[in-house]
What does this fold into?
Amino acid sequence: MNRLLVSLLGLPLLAGCDANTSGRPIQINMALGSTAKNDPSHFVTSTGWDVQLEEACIAVGPIYFYANTAFASAETGRWNRIKSVVGIEKQAFAHAGHNHFNGGEVRAEWLGQNALNVLNPTLDPLGLQNGLWGEVKSFSVYLEPPRKLLAANPCLRGHNAFARGIARKAERVVPFEGGLDIENVGVNRRVEGLKYSATFDDGVGVAISAQPNAWFDQADFDTLDTMTTEGRFVITPNSQVRVAWFIGARGIGSFRAAALQ
It folds into this structure.
């Protein structure tokens, strides 16, 4: 039984209550994609790489919206030294994914899964979703492997996420591509404590978008050393770029929610 259904079954009778009583059943519109005008395909990383994406896709879902404020430990926002299992050391941005998160009451949820084509300028509507009236202060996105219907999706190539593009720095030009697979360990597949402030009511709309600039913000493309026959450098499972991507795709800046107009 899902979290929201449990909340709905536990509601008292609402006859005679104020129309804005917290917990009143509602329906909201959800969509995948960005409402912003900026181009998500081009960005400059903190490591100084100018990145132009040609493809960027990630499997998302379920998605939950919560009543409580996003929570992250005092570690969040600091630079930590990551000693990964692949034996490399690079600076990486701490994020809420490693911390305990208590979002409180679920205000709305989408229990499906879809391939979010980050570079697609149009929104992908998810339709009306059941919810509860009240303030929303945070949300979570689950990054599960592609389910049966998405397994053959060319956008994902069978991975949790896929990206292809060109990174430039000074005289260096690095065409790259690769997939991200997220292990089912602890809360690795949850992006929790994402900030969003709104009041959910009937007819409210919200769009959830991925932020590819966060994926590669700490990537050093110079470390890629495996090349395809087409001359593309591959983001291999043991590469520094993959480690940076793994952290960035689950960081506090990896997803945004915005009101649908």
Q: What stands out?
A: The first strand starts at residue 25 and ends at 32. The chain has one domain: 24-259.
